[in-house]
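Q: I'm a student working through a structural biology exercise. My instructor gave each of us a protein and asked us to get a predicted structure, then write a short paragraph describing it. Mine is B30.2/SPRY domain-containing protein. I'm not confident about reading structure output yet, so if you can add a plain explanation after the tokens, that would really help. Here is the sequence I was given:
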Amino acid sequence: MRDRMLGKDDKSYVMYIDCERSWFQHNSVHERRIEGGIQEGSTVGVLLDLDRRSLRFLVNNMPQGSVAFNNLTGVFYPAVSVNRGVSLTLNSGIEPPELDY
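A: Happy to help. First, here is the predicted structure for B30.2/SPRY domain-containing protein. I'll explain a few features afterward.
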């Protein structure tokens, strides 16, 4: 199953996050580990900017590091993966935050 995880192929862009840290992964390349994770009640945001062809992740409306991925092309399909015992509420269509690039 590990070979089917998000971020293992060239078509998925992922932020893995737990209670201590986060990191980004694409095409099996794991990079930019950031200290500080999420707690119960945290909000995780995903900002896909098609004009800038970039993908950013936010935790509690604060950028989780810099722009995670640039120069994106193609068609995008959102996906969420969680570990067992984890619950989440998914909100779509929320007004994106104003961010400095």
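A: Here are two points you could use in your paragraph. The first strand starts at residue 13 and ends at 17. Strands lie at 13-17, 21-26, 29-35, 44-49, 54-59, 62-63. It's a good idea to check both against the output above yourself.
Q: Great, thank you!
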